[in-house]
Design a protein that fits this description.
This protein is an alpha/beta fold and about 475 residues long. The protein is about 30% helix and about 15% strand. The strands form 4 sheets. The protein has a 6-stranded mixed β-sheet. It has a 5-stranded mixed β-sheet with strand order 12-14-13-15-16, sandwiched between helices. α3 crosses α4 and α11 packs across α13.
Amino acid sequence: MASVAASAQVSGSLSSSHSIPKDQRGAGLLQRVCFPATSTHGRKDVAPLKSGFSVRTASPAVESPAVERKKKEEKVEEGAGFVVEEDYEKLADELQNASPLEIIDSALARFGNDIAIAFSGAEDVALIEYARLTGRPFRVFSLDTGRLNPETYQFFDVVEKHYGIHIEYMFPDSVEVQALVRTKGLFSFYEDGHQECCRVRKVRPLRRALKGLRAWITGQRKDQSPGTRAHIPVVQVDPSFEGLDGGAGSLIKWNPVANANGVDIWNFLRAMNVPVNSLHSQGYVSIGCEPCTRPVLPGQHEREGRWWWEDAKSKECGLHKGNIQQEVEGNGSAAANGSAAPSDIFNSKSVVSLSRAGIENLMKVENRREPWLVVLYAPWCRFCQAMEGSFVELAEKLEGLSSGVKVGKFRADGEQKEFAKEQLQLGSFPTILFFPKHSATPIKYPSEKRDVDSLLAFVKALQ
């Protein structure tokens, strides 16, 4: 039976009815969690919240066998309750192959009313459906930035009615928003990046929300964003935000669909007949604020529809900055997380690898004997990786047609990035340039379509 979430909070943090003494705070990978001996969970009564609202449980909560075993092994009598000390790195290993349903059940069993689902109004509605299937009470909150699509607001209403819940909305500080807009205008993020706007409209409201919780549930998946989410654990001590008790280790972050992929999620949503945001049927996959989100084309990665004017590795708003891995750029050294440097891409005898001197020479029209098609790339960029097959196939096709067009690649990250921005029109990776035979200025490929036919049409039109 569907459970009922807590009602909306307009400002401040998301409050809870349970408290843990300051001296029971955890740090690092260990957190001490107090399970009251006379828990209100599982009883058909009302648990009051500090906000003045309440959560009514519809049916007794039954602990999973794994949780019960854990409690029996580690409980220590202490006053009216007992304390469980969790090693979340170990727990993440134990749950690595668990289903999203099992992971969410484990999260709700441990934290009860002190945990909430973060809902963005996209396919992460799957988290709410999984929570419903556990039969446990659950809470849902969302960040209303003031810039969402009308379809997303309509979807919030549909979700509340479908599940019989009240989403706890968090809003940005009106004074901060006013200062930002009056100083820099409504669309400053197109000129100097989205981080400042996201910090005001999303990160700070999230920080306030999490200060009223001891754990939260996110819809992060490893396959969502190039270079930033590849190593997400299913559960972790939150590396960026603090919970109710404050300090390091006071907040636990659950990522139950970390190991799922987009296809898995959509198969689940269809199978369970879950309502979805109508923007998905219009080509939107990843959905954020209206000015910073657009539909993607077939074959494009879902995050290409977010902040499309910026580099692939910049496609995070700061909500999950603790999971971002340092990228490898230019010097070929290993990444900060210890992984090996990515191997090069676009490797083919039909694709010429250009050095800095080579690309500078190509820019001099008097030295250009034939037209060139050149991709500016970074090997770690997933969008570059996604178009590798089509670009190599195009190079081989142009060579086979004896078209006279040379195809090359220039690695434009690291030390070459500023040069590429200033001299080669680099905006984001990949950037494709056509150097005509008798023109000094290269022509930038304007489309997001990177299939062979589209690229070939571009070449033929300018050849």
